[in-house]
Design brief:
With 1448 residues, the protein is α/β, with parallel strands linked by helices.
Amino acid sequence: MSDSLKRLAHLHSSLSTPPKPAPELLGTLNLGSISLPIHATNDPERTARLIHPLDIKDPTIAAHLFWITQKVILGQGSSSPSHPPHQSNTLANPHSPPQKTDIFLLQSPGPFARRLALTFCSLLNRPFELVSLHRDVGESELKQGRELRKGGKLEYVDSPAVRAAKNGSILILDGIERCERGVLPILNNLLENREINLEDGTHIVSSDRYDLMLQNKEDTTNFIPAHRDFRVIAIGTPVPPYPGFPLDPPFRSRFQVRYLDPLASSRVLAQEARKGLEGNGKGIVEKTADAITAIQIAKEMRAKMSSGVTSSEDLPAFPQTSLLKLSQFLSLFPPPTHASLSTPSDLSVLLLSLHPALSYITPPLWRSLETAFEGAGLGEWVAGISDCDPNLSGVEDGSGIWGWELVEIRRENERSARLFFTRGGVEDVQVVVGAGPRLFLPYPLNPSTLPNIHLTPRFLHTLTSLFQLHSLRSFDISILPPSSCLQSSSSSTTLIIETFAKLLGYELETIHLVKDLGGGRELWMRRIVETGLGKGGLGKKGETGWEPSSMLKGAWEGKLVHLEGIDSIGATVGSLGRLVNDREGELWEGKRMVGVLGEADEELSSLFISLPTIAMPLSEEKTILLSTGCPSSLVDTLENFARSYRRAHGAPGSKSRRLGTASLLRMARRLAKFPKESLWELVNRTLLSEFLPTTDRSGLETLLSESGIREESHWWNPPAQVIDNALVFPAASDPEKHSVDYVIPLYDMELDPTGSSHVPFMNNYLDNSQQTALMRDIATDLEVLGEHVLLLGNQGVGKNKIVDRLLQLLKRPREFIQLHRDSTPQSLMFQTSLDGGVIRYVDSPLLRAVKYGRVIVIDETDKAAAHVVAGLASLASRGEMTLPDGRKIRPPDQIGDPSDIVVHPKFRMILLANRPGFPFLGNREPSATPVVLASGLKFGFHLIAFLRVLGDNFSCFAVCNPDADSEQRVLTQLAPDLDPDLLKSLVLAFGDLRKAFEAGTLPYPFSLRELLALVRHMKRFPEDELEQVLRNVFDFDINRLETIDALYDILRKHKLAVRRIGIDAARVGSEDTKKPVVIEFKPTGDTSLDKPKFGKAPDGKSHTGGNTWAGGTGGRDTAGLGGRGGYMRLFTGQDISQIPDELKEDVPDEIKNQAREMARKELAARLAEIDLTSGQASTYSGYHHAVQSHVHQLVTFLENLEANEEERIWLKRQSDGELDESKLTEGLTGEAAIYKRRGMEKPEMGAPQLKPKRIRFIFDLSASMYRNQYDGRLARSLEAAVMILESFARLSRKEKYRIDLVGQSGEEAERQVIPLVSLDALPTHAGERYKVIQKMAVIPQYAWAGDHTIEAITQGVADVADSDSDDFFLICLTDANFARYGITADDLRTAMSSNPKVKVSLIAIGEGAEAAWLPKALPGQAYRVMNTTDIATNIRAILGAMLSSSAL
């Protein structure tokens, strides 16, 4: 069928219906002086259904409704608002004003405006259409969608906006601030003139224009009149101060706006719930309202004083629904009769439930909160709340919020349960709540029937509190983590959710959301193409349609829905607002889901009522570890270390790996089976200490030593053997015979008959002791303990070969996937194809491994996006993953759909990745997005970094280059005929090369792979010279002179016969680029001298002898080489003709003096250009030479960091580019936005603009720096300053950093800081940089004894924070004798934390480095550098760590 015929068919269906008669008049709505007639509606199913509509008698509501009614009347012109089209009284007046007065309700985030709009619709008995806007809304959602029907017929489906315009409904556009500015202009003409062109070829025009066309007897075939009753109510939040996209001016100009005061809105929402309050509950709610009012007014006053800008250091505004939540909670669970019976911790838990953002505010803001509540009359209840710990509430006795206990759960009917709560001194509480149809787990819980649950008071407190919040019924629940700190024990969140579901008979539906979801409607429904196998048979084959998503099915079937990873979909989460708030939602093709709950809550953090969780106390964690069978002495040691480690590395921004309960449990399970294993190795392996920065690694060694965990000797490990049906790793050569054989059962191939072809094959593996031990440990975790495994290491250390060899020995079938920057969750699951108009899915290697119980090796995992890695972490931790085609991966013990893929018990994952950090930057996604999980789920903040995304779900192994003995053995096996001494020298040289990389001297981590390549070449071509063979590896660095010098020194150190390296080695034997040679030359003819001169400018030719041309050789008087009598040397690349020494010495004194004077003047002129004398140039060159490798590494790191921040991604929903395979169905229906292309990702709505990073360096210039310079501290500090100045001067994007350098000495307090380099005034050349270090060198010589470290840090934090930047850093170098000057840990902590947004690091040298308490008191912020030669290395490492953490 042609497009024109399709459109005509659609027109016929739209226009063939005769005009409907005027609707019946039901009555009149009187609002003040305004009256509106109320008519019956032709579409009663689309009217507003509010169980609890707003009270129109309330003065606030009445005023808002009166204003809305005024705007409706203004848009009616002279016609009745209820007249149908072409029956209007305005037919005779074609010049009557267009009906275009639309309404914009501006409010703080929350449901009030939507309820107000729906209340208005309900009063007028008017049908409505609602569009929940979000970032992914496009043209098809606002105009018309396309569907394929029987016989390939294309059908257009009207959007809610078009339906409202045609039928005269009220269109509600909810969440204007979430929609990109370029989308809403699609509706501009509809708003302004009630006109819009549609994809089916029809045109909606204003009713006046349509009536005029009828009068003029014009052709109206393609025209549809906009209904006169059509109105638009837009809802949005002001941007700023709230996050979102600002309004497009043309769009804004088409509305009349009304601001809804958040304080009044909050009181109105809670009005009904407050009626049931009595006693203390009523007073607490009223005074809380007063406190919220005081906080909001103070916030607004501060904004006025700051030119309207709201400070991020203010208390976050309370959600609209705070008073509603509080009123409902206290009406069900009355507070104690007197404040003396309550603790501040009790109230703090309740406040966190109302306002989850309070979990992340600073102590000063808690004090501000306490002050506000005291001023409102709640002083007795909140006294000390700023110093209390919410984790203490209810922990001792297991009671819930405010001491209530859950005593019984009784089924009421198939879909509800009755809960019984009790608390001493008040009446018991019974409440009926929703429940699932499954059998209830008996309550109270019986420990004997729940082996995996430890019924501790902490667990029971959290569970009881969850039931209390569930009793409110009006709110979904979010679960808050204990704190934003990553270093803590488990809070049992998943276990609590699962237990809650079982106690109420719920089926738990976990949905894993991913970033490339493709749009908000995919959360609700999934696009399909009929295969002809379902209802309707072959007749429906090829037709497009929709089916409910897993979330929607869960809502329909009354499941407990867990939305995991909701942070990954960004602003698209806005499409869930109405489901969570009103239990309603717009579905496909005009369908609407209507719920029975009318209560709502605030968006995102205020969408839910929140439950704060509590980290396990030491005693509970210890009980869990002992349950594994691990010896108690080892458990005690583990717990002591864990407590010290968490305390030392709990600071925000710490680069150390998290040590959670899952990691401790994994170690305990291993020690239970192998108690003689080295605890030192287990801890270091778990924490990946091999890849920690030097300072953190040193701190870890100290903690291990203090915990009594010592390093043990390493012994030789014999190669593994296959004996009978087992892989045996013989005991190591331990003379004390503590080592034992490890016996790992081989895989039974009968479990996977088709898997034999998937077993890896290797015939050239080179055994060595270190990698044999690694294979033993991996095999134990993989096969004995059933763990999934993560291997990290530098390139070329043998990760793939180790895994393949191990799987070959175990006879384990293997699947393989290699990830990259464009990998998506869909590509992990299957490949998509289009066959006969039907989309088909082919299972990926990962799905095959899940089904058949194979090992999936996933290489280059660190290159994939964070949301892809998060999916793998979920699969590893719970055996769950939601597939894009609607199916689900689930564990075997979980009830699910027959189409689900059940995880095979033998399924294992092995992830391979490069080590974290430079130069392996991987594919990071900068983000610090709130994570909100609905329906009983978590809320927190995740730093999107590879290891932190993986969490504790994998057993981790650091794969390093073999030790010297193992490496020597490998090379000997590879090339037994080569000289053993040569191989040993190569091994030792490469060992030093790796040490140089770790120390920062070399930019590249040379690995076993490069060494093996060299040896293979020498074995095959023994006649090649070594220096030419080395070029195979070292030519990458041919233009890095400092690297070539370092390589040369190391090679010569180990007596490797290398004469030249780098460019010199590359030019050996090349005729075109051969190195110039020196030729003995004795001039003939005239050899007399005249006077020194430059000579004629070089002409590109070789000139030998004479005194005419500059640049010649063997001449006289002129600038050149090999001659005599000239005042300067000049080389032009030719061979050098060198005159005899006796002739060279035969120069008269007057000519010598004349030449020297000319040379001095020329040199002075050149140095004047950079403001340096020759002596100064030599001094500066010495400092620069000492740190040139650091400069190169720091510049490379900073440049790569910028490139990574600006890396392009795949942009979806594009009108051109590459076809997006996830949009094949839309492509079949003819939609345009089905492509993807590479581009820069747009920031999330409300994300601040990227601004420069502000950095200040403070150097110690006190007298002790000069007095004690015998240890090199002053010289090393000057070198560090040169490193900083040179590095930032070489950046291609200098504007991305704003730095300054200051000093502090012992002079009077008003000279706390001494300017060295002013802000944004980096020295441009060596002369200016020399002046900086000269000033730094001179000041300590004359400074008075004393120290102002504290004052300099305090002032520095204030100055840095005052900058208009995104990130703020301060690094302070000091040699202060803390004890002598009375500087305590509290003094430093106060100064360094005076502004939380400034990240401060303190580097203590000299006497300061002797303060052993420093890194313990200030973990992650203070460092001791005992050896002054490491100052530059540590500053570079710390700066790199701070900057890279800010980019996460």
